[in-house]
Amino acid sequence: MTKLHTVTLIPGDGIGPEITRAVTRVLHAANAPLVWEEQAAGAAVLETEGSVLPQRVLDSIAKNGVALKGPITTPIGKGFRSVNVALRKALDLYACVRPAKTLPGVKSRYTGVDLVIVRENTEDLYAGLERKIDEDTAESIKRITRGASERIARYAFAYAVQNGRKKVTAVSKANICKFSDGLFLEAVRKVAQEYPQIAYEEVLVDNLCMQLVINPENYDVLVLPNLYGDIVSDLAAGLTGGLGVAPGANIGQKAAVFEAVHGSSPALAGQQKANPTALLLSACLMLRHLGETACAQKIEAALLQTLQEGETLTFDLGGHASTDEFAQAVIAHL
Ligand code: NAD
Question: Ligand 1 centroid to 1 CA: how many Å?
Answer without folding.
Answer: 40
